[in-house]
Amino acid sequence: MCGRFSLRLEPQVIRHELDRYNLPVNEWIDQDQFVPRYNIAPRSLAPVIRHSSPKNSSRLGMESLEDSSHQLVMQTMKWGLVPHWSKYEDKSLNTINARSENLVSGGGMWNSLRGRKRCVVVCQGYYEWLSKGKDKIPHFTKPKSGHLLLLAGLYDSVELQDRTDTLWSFSIVTTAASNEFAWLHDRQPVILSTQKDIDQWLDTSSQRFLVGMVPKEVGKIGMESSSFILPISVRKDGIEAMFSKQKQAQATSATKSTSTMKRKHDQVSPKSTKILATKIEDSSDSDIEILEHHPPFAKKKKI
Prior knowledge:
Largest sheet: 6 strands, antiparallel
CATH topology: hypothetical protein yedk fold
Order of helices and strands: EHEEEEEHEEEEEEHHEE
Distance between the termini: 11 Å
Keywords: Covalent protein-DNA linkage, DNA damage, DNA-binding, Hydrolase, Lyase, Protease
Pfam families: SRAP (PF02586)
Number of strands: 14
Structural class: alpha+beta
CATH superfamily: SOS response associated peptidase-like
GO molecular function: lyase activity; peptidase activity; single-stranded DNA binding
Oligomer: single chain
Mean pLDDT: 75
Region (Disordered): 247-273
Radius of gyration: 20 Å
Protein name: DUF159-domain-containing protein
Strand order of the largest sheet: 3-1-8-9-14-13
Number of helices: 4
Strand content: 25-35%
């Protein structure tokens, strides 16, 4: 789960940091609505990165894949996704997180979003609470390098009956915690650690669903393949493949570092500030550090 995150950087600094990931953001929509905060909670406004889309698509909650531009835009959105079919915002709906398992299975409200409306959530790190008896101790997870942490997300837009403007909102995709994070919580956000991860997540070209959800190659006369009758989600370029590759990478990383981590964990003092430093990828820029750290509102909000 990911219930709080931090982004206490000014817009110009955020843009500069994104250059490290080769993310040329041409425009920041509603930049003036973003307020830098150390403690961003659900229903707050925060920036995400997405592909630009036709201006007339928001009314239908749809995006035309044929007409969509490959240009990237950043947009300030509300955290807690409101589906495009909504007439009013249902504040009892818990959509701050989207489980990757549900995206793969293709059921529920995420089915219409997983292949078309993906985004990258920009933050410096996220908060998670460690349960110890009756206590819940907040920890802050961030890149050891101090650079931005980019998370996989989904977004949607809707015109509600009690609003005059279009509401844009997003959800953070979560997955089962890897061995490095399992001691803290059984869930973690999907971290986009490399340029390849980011490109693959934002590339929705492999998710062009037709009736029956078969691949587009079936339309080519003379083409023959058993994959034509398989769901797109299980193809090598599908969404299931992406999450499978990430789990495999986590497992490989965990195998390499299990013994080292055990020694570090055994040596940690309860009063120590630095709880854990793990390496997610072979690049030093992807080092993740978890701090025992109380955000401005230490008590976790029940969602």
